Amino acid sequence: MGLLSIIASSFAIDAYGPISDNADGIAGMASTSHRICDKTDALDAAKNTTSTIGIEIAISSTALMSLALSGAFVSSVSISTIDILGPKVFIGLIVGEMCPYGYS
Q: Which of 23, 32, 49, 91 has the highest count of CB atoms within 10 angstroms of its CB?
């Protein structure tokens, strides 16, 4: 749940990508000087980094939240025969719960 506390900041940072991409496109269409194009290229490189970090946080928070939801389901239904902490079950749950997100 702690990973979800920074998700709003992560999405706000991820929204930076289209803004810098538009700035680069406008600078290119306006035939501005090379100095400005160099600065917008640097912003474009920063966009790629922040976009990657935002995607990684979103994927990892989705995986952990899916696992937490299945743990809550197991405890609310009082199923005692499933050991979530077993390595094979744990990996199977993570892979199984990420399949719908991977296909969508």
A: 23
d(CA 17, CA 91): 33
3-state secondary structure of 86: coil
Specify the pTM: 0.56
Render the burial of 44-82: b for 16+ CB within 10 Å, e for the rest: eeebeebbeebeebbeebbbbebbeebeeebeeeeeeee
Q: Are 7 and 61 in contact (CB under 8 A)?
A: yes
- In order along its 104 residues, the chain shows pLDDT tens digits of 666 677 777 777 777 778 888 888 888 888 888 888 888 888 888 887 877 887 788 778 777 787 788 778 777 887 777 777 778 887 887 788 778 767 76
* Domain count within the chain: 1
Domain of residue 52 covers 3-103
Token reading at 68: 């937490």
